[in-house]
Every structure is written in C-alpha cells, then in structure tokens.
Specification:
Length: 118
Amino acid sequence: VQLQASGGGLVQAGGSLRLSCAASGFSLDDYAIGWFRQAPGKEREGVSCISRSDGSTYYVDSVKGRFTMSRDNAKNTVYLQMSGLKPEDTAVYYCAAELMCGMKPRYWGQGTQVTVSS
C-alpha cells in the first residue's frame, strides 16, 4: 500500500502547480483523500479533501477559490490544482487516505515540496 505525491516545485507568486497523488496497492475510490501541508516551524494543516462517496470537495478558507481537487479513478490518482499561489502556500504537501474527510488518515504519502517566491 503506497501513496505517491508529486508535482511540487518552485513557482513565482501568482503561478500554478498541479500536485498528483497516485495510489498503489489499493483503490483510491475506496477512500476520501486529503491534502495536508506543513510549513517550516508550523504544524501540519489540512488543506483540502475529496469524499469517496460523491466526490464532494472541501477546502480550508485560505485556499478556497484558488485550489481545486479532482479524482481520476481510472488512473487511481487524485489531483490538487493550485493557482494564484502565494508565498504563504510554501510548504511540504502530503496526500493521505481517510475513511471520511476529517477522520484520522489511514495512509500517508511522502511529501512534495512547494515553494512560492515573491
């Protein structure tokens, strides 16, 4: 069972990135998938989540209107499209599989670094 996050990088403020979270060993559509991030010196925070039941998405207020989650069940991959990036979005981003959005994740992926320069 493995989650593989990718797509991070260095981007200027206002730019865009798309993060991917690919699963192996299990089907992503059996789980809600959350994205979390942790900036240096800060606690990890939940950024967004897509439910397993109807694909409903949830976002923390700071990213609403800028980040969009989607799911491609055929590819067993979940995406986080990030636009209008701000320096405060700089963090290591992790994806995780949860039974329901808001529950303690069952599986974690490794992080991918997102750095937004001003």
